[in-house]
Known about the structure:
The chain has 290 residues and is an alpha/beta fold. The chain has two domains: 3-249, P-loop containing nucleotide triphosphate hydrolases (Rossmann fold); 250-290, no CATH class. It is built from twelve helices and ten strands. A six-stranded mixed sheet has the order 6-7-8-3-9-10, sandwiched between helices. Magnesium ion (MG) binds at residues 46-47, 172. Adenosine-5'-triphosphate binds next to β2 and α1.
Amino acid sequence: MQIVAENLSHVYSPKSKFAVSALKNVSLTIDEGEFFGIIGHTGSGKSTFIQHLNGLIKADKGSKKLTVGEFDLLDKKCDFKKLRSKVGMVFQYPEYQLFADTVAEDVAFGLKNFERLSEEETAARVREAIETVGLSYEEVKEKSPFDLSGGQKRRVAIAGVIVTKPEILVLDEPVAGLDPKGKKEFFALLHALHGGFVKTVVIVSHDMDNVAEHCTKAAVFENGEVWKVAPPKELFKEAETLAEMGLDVPVTGYLAARLAANGVKIDTDFTERDFARKVLETYRRAEEGR
Ligand SMILES: Nc1ncnc2c1ncn2[C@@H]1O[C@H](COP(=O)(O)OP(=O)(O)OP(=O)(O)O)[C@@H](O)[C@H]1O
Ligand SMILES: [Mg+2]
């Protein structure tokens, strides 16, 4: 399912003196298959944009187009319930939304909202979702979600979203607050999901290293507008403009700039592996030339 927004606008509290124009004529296409990053300074409209994708926030009247696959979200007759089973939304710190007495009940809740299944079918789907996020169903099913570790809680929350087998998974700052190992494992999980029923991942991130490492493309939001959409390899070449927007580049970007200042040009895609390989090649060539 392709996501297409054309001239999408959203004003919060439009008729009051507290009106905030959070999105201004945003036009953005996200193709099926992408691992798509959304970056931008705080308050630039990232969360507002992604919450439009499953109808949690409704687009303003002047908006021209908002479609997700065959769903026309500007049409009053849009089946939002069905849409929400296809577009899974994981909010920031999803573990705070766990509420049921047991892990199995919590995950089942995500499913019962959308599908009428027998108890056995529900249990089978819940087991599948819990195992997909890398937890042991037998170990956690009867546990209170509150007795799990931070990383486990987050996995349970994701299980409650993927239990409907969404084709698009949208995540707002999914690795915020995790330690480096937790982040790595979480991205491994996202890639595993992306290779299965999840066709498209859309992820909001402040961490440019993660964007360089994992995203196929990214959009930069600036003050409610989209400044640029490009693969990270192109985006992070514009370090100065990004800095003006209060945005970083990946660590590899800083290192490449340092080397360039010393006359060593490295044409990298900003992933660690590529950067290391190119530095090594440059070093070897220099050694051979001596
Ligand atoms: N419920 C709301 N009511 C009124 N204004 C809001 C609401 N939610 C967000 N805003 C405002 O809309 C603008 C965009 O907010 P949004 O949350 O989309 O930004 P963001 O890019 O996700 O920021 P962050 O990186 O801090 O999460 C901001 O000016 C914000 O203050
Ligand atoms: Mg946000």
